[in-house]
Structures
1.
Amino acid sequence: MENFVSVPPEPNGACHDVAAGSAYEIPAGVAHMLRNKSSGYLEHLVFALPPFNPNDVYLRDQKLSPGKTYPLSLPEAEDCFDGAKILSYAFSRPDLSIAYGWVMNDPARRKQPHRHKKSTEFVYVVEGKGFIEIDRVRHPLESGDWIRIDPETEHGLFNEAPEDLVVVCICSPAFQMEDVRHR
């Protein structure tokens, strides 16, 4: 079964399939619902701007019956400069970028740690285990970990397991390659 996000103001209460790596921006005041149609968990991350306030949530009395389901368009996975594969999203308001990525256990793809001149980076580990090297010290990572990396802090993600290390990285201000410096 498919998971989907429903945004009723679209024609006939349109529903969009969601999958790992999906991102969807929902403007304030737009009714929406995320429905898990599978037998497992639907783990998802929500970024709320301004910060989430439970008093700002209004529940509808009626149940939503999905109309036609449309696929969300996902960006093509691309090779990142640090050897990961990523789906990258940039938002103009606020000035931030989000990347969903896979760090593979492939020594040929490993790159040296790097630092950002301006960006603060937040890393959330979605799945897997690995290491983050911060200023030449390795720290273990596992699913559910959040890490904040301040500007000018040398860092790199490493995976030595057979499974991919799946992460979401948020940079503010938005990631730009010219902000990156290597050792």
2.
Amino acid sequence: MQIARDGTPKLKGLAQWMLDNLDQIAFHSIRTVAQIADSNPNNVIRIASQLGYSGYDAMRADVQKVVSARSNAQYSSRAQALRTRDENTVLEEIARSRLANMESIFHEESLSVLLDCIDPLLKARKVYSVGVRSCFSVAHYFSYVGGMAFDNFEPAPSQPGAIQDQMTGAGSKEIVMAITYQH
């Protein structure tokens, strides 16, 4: 990207950051990208314009295609590689990965975030949990376990159309837990 070489220092820095963080551009708004990159939205728009795009959304659409193609290729090659590997090695890697995930939950920063959630959840009139596709089971489990301990947890909607029906009654005294994952 020529801007990364020839632009003003702020534009150079942002352009280099954008090259290194395509996944952030693919799934975030202008303001969020600017905030994460420690820049401002005008610079993000300026770079999109200098690259020949009509706006940020047009640039983001192209970046999403690149990120998606890269992810699909990585997933495909990883899935193919699993076929040639010893099952004990794969199971050991799964066990290590699960352990690392559990350790990350108990990391000081994660614990701080979780502890900050306790009072709002307990004080909410109702707590809704929403997750679709691969996140449905997590949302369902969250609402199920929460409902065993607290009477303000609502069951997770079991049908995608029921999400809107259930959320219609949500107001400022309710909490909606949207379960998702980073693309």
